[in-house]
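Cross-check.
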Amino acid sequence: MHSNGLDQQVEQFALWRNNLTRHLKQLRLWLRRNKMFSPEADIRIHEVLEALNDDYLTVAFTGEFSRGKTELINALFFSDFGQRVLPSDAGRTTMCPTELFYDRDSGETYLRLLPIHTREMQSSLDSLKQQREAWHEIPLVTDSAGEMTRAFAVITETIKVSEAEAVRLGFSAKHLTEKDDEGQVTIPKWRHALISIPHPLLKKGLKILDTPGLNALGSEPELTLNLLPQSQAVIFILAADAGVTASDMQIWDEYVRPIQQRPHVGLFAILNKIDVLWDELSDRHHFDNSLNAVKKLTARQLNLSEDNIIPVSARKGLVAKIHSDAALLADSRLGELEKILSETLLEKKRDLYWEHLMRDAITLIEDGKENLSEQRTQLEQQHHQLQTISSQNAANLEDLIITVDAERQDLNHQIHTLRPSRRLLDRQARVLIDALGPRQLERLIILTKQKLINAKTSRGLFKAMKQFNEDVLAMFDEFCREAELANKMAEAVYAKYEKTHGVEFMSPRLLEAKKSRRELLDLLRQGQKIRQKFSSILTEQSTLVRRFFSTQVTQVAVYLSQVRKVITEWNRRLMFPLEQQIYSRRRLLDEHFQQLQDIKQLKATTGGRMKALETLMMEIDDELASANKTLSALNTSPANYSSNNVVKISTSR
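Predicted model, tokenized:
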């Protein structure tokens, strides 16, 4: 197998992910051992483990037809087969969006094709992926490159339809082929392709998205709204000899540039086919100057950093890998792309994991550390009290017993007052969930769909969709106001117990409602940009417009569902750190009270109890050190990870 930076980085990512899985499983034991385990904590760890297992590293290739997208995919990932696997010959190219991955759930190998006429349905692509009967399936023989090549050739198939039918299916008339003698035009036979094969990189979690040209991007809203933004790297491919053409610029402005605003996506422009610029009659210096001029111009046109403009020759790179020609591989500059791509994939994915997954697990550990530190402080205070008793010949023992018992009784009273606080926060959580409830959204959807049905013009369609967005934002603004009130309630509950006990409890985890609103606004704005593109669409293409609306509605519904889940989780976890600390304080006070009684009744000595406290403090120190090691492992970047830096959490106490 040809080893390159991408192979190594994906391998590192797989090792890193496996290491995280081990640490999260050991975290369960750590929580149990320190009496901090709960069903809520178990659910949180389980959800992170599930996400780690199901997730992919995704790289998307996009651009106009005949720019060499599929050839570049062949060169980067499939050179080990010794030939082109995906169709990329002249006149035979990918005609529909294609996802390449390994189906880890089923372990099956397949090519599934979605017929183009499913565009007449209002079902989203995501929902169709769950309907296996909607797809045409072709079995794959993965141990034969020739058999796979023949099977994948199906992706290039086309059909003949009337121009009116093509327009009804969502294709722009100006991008259709010329009519034949019978007045028909050529369109792709398939709408989408799913390829599951046990390629080593795909088995380790890599997913590849290959998109055809403008007609596919313009007529498949989910490509722009879902698949491209969910990638960790988006590769926009240009032809080095042609530069940025008008159709390239249209794709960039309408579909790719908006992705720049997303924090977890790396965006690159590839100047492919640099071999066309090679000139045996000119020296290397002349070639480098010409290429740098094209690179600078492209950076200005796309408003992209020159560091993100990468010249390559996919064709020469593929040939070089197949024939093990190191000199030609260097000239193709494919290695530079592999290095940048691998670093970007890991960096963006790691950031995404931190924001949506690891932060949750790390919060569990940090809460646990704070709890242990508070326990250690209590043990130190008890140790000091016993020293005082010992030095004063137990003269103050009875007073200390009375003081500790009073603290116990007061704490038990405070524990009872937790229940009304919990009920108050539960009620506010229900208000928050109701503010974003499915009923409110369904009412807006029904109202908007009726407006779409009654709309006679494209302007009427877009007006209804714009109103839907405004109504959704108004609904979310009400949620934000209630979330602010909920946060104030939570802070007041924590502040009350801090004042009562004279200690600093953990701060409550607050709802980030404003951040959620920004995310929703980004989602709606992305749809608005596509609506503006559709503003010139004829009424005959209202099916496409309605399908776009259906896609956006699904996105909004999914997002609101995620926010409701966040609210539920927030409410379920909100009181847990406070309750955990209070119950730990009561347990230590109970133990201390009992030990003082034993000393009074001569069943124990102050010296023995002091040694026991010293042992407990040492054990807590060990557990804190173990927690720090786990935090270090969870914060380790996959780019810095190797099989040699597995850190084991302590398993004994």
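The longest helix spans residues 334-391. The chain has a mean pLDDT of 82. Passed to J.P. for a second look.
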